[in-house]
Amino acid sequence: MKQSGNDTISIFRRNGIAVVASNQFIRVFARSQMWIFLPLYLLEIRHVPYIIIGLVVFLMAISSLPLTLVAGGLIDKRGARSVIIVSNIFLGLLLLSLTLLIFENSNLYLIYLVLILSEPLMNIIGAADNVIVSDNSSVAERNSAFSIVRILQNLGFSLGPAIGGFIAGIGYGYIFLLTTVFSFSELFIYAKFLKKQQKKGENEKDDTVNMKPDIFKAFKDRPFFIVAILISLFYLILGQWGTTLTFFWKGFDNMSDFDIGLLYSVNGVVVTLGQLPVNRLLSKMEDITRINLGYIVYLFSFSLLPFFSGFIFLVLDTILITMGENIVSPSISTVISRIAPVNKRGQYFTSFQVLTGMVTPIAPVLGTFFLTVFSADLGLIWYPFTIIGTIFFLSFIPLWKKVNMREHNN
User: Fold this and answer.
1) C or N terminus of the chain, fewer CB within 10 Å?
2) What is the residue extent of each domain of the chain?
3) Could you tell me which InterPro entries the record lists for this protein (predicted)?
4) What's the CA gap between 65 and 75, in Å, rounded?
């Protein structure tokens, strides 16, 4: 179902969606700089090898699994607002500690520890945001609602990396200081403006839910399990957008920090301007078909990287990668929200993060492994990814057909 411009504005004005979208802009503006330039800080300032950086990213992702598993039940039982506020308090303190450690060039293991402790809190906040957006939109509105959030995210992403590239020239520590300040700003907005969600009807009956069994019930839900596993394996390829691509641009194309920031900003601009037009163009396409189409665009974009070079080509390739992102990203959240029972969305979203979190951390390890193996010619790293990605796509076609979508209306 197509959403008109007035409908989109109406969805955005809802309290939960407006607060989440606004905070996503703030969060991504600041954390995109940290996400992009942390690996470069470790590589260029602290001289950490590729593979060690990949392992640190892996440990950050793995560390989030136990707490994320419990958090789903907490979100459904205590409410997304309470979980978000408490998580933001602890996250802000950890980011402040990280900033001080980086300014002091402190022991690397202390920096790794703070990074590993921060990651679960970031994931919990993200899962709670998804629940808030789902609770404030109907099934028919859901793609538009998640797209609004993504547009605000990527408006932040269109500004953050370019500014981060400039700040990196002054000192990497100031990037982390900015992230800390903006994290406390998020906390203020959640506490001041996010209204407490009222449970209705069926939801009220489940207030005494036993968290552990319900979480594992989500794992036993066959359509959910199939979707989560297939998307997780896709992320082995999609996850090269980030650490691996940053190092590739630096080592193969000799891009400066500022150039890298501009390339990531191109991604943000294309999402901001292109997400809603893509949604309208593909409004009649099934969400699972969209996920597969976006994956193909991603895979093709990565496969071009060894054959061309220069800033103009990289801008065009980034635009193509971003079109794949525009196609696939809203549909992933929509598929999970449609499969999940209304009163179990927190558990399903966090269970999805747990399942994907068991596979996706391998992506940066795989990327940095190939960067190390093919260090003499970095262009070779995209050949194994193209082969693996093609095998995944062809092998998964029969499994997608087994997924039975269950729609739930608020």
Assistant:
1) N
2) 13-193+211-400
3) MFS (IPR011701), MFS_dom (IPR020846), MFS_trans_sf (IPR036259), MFS_Transporters (IPR050171)
4) 15
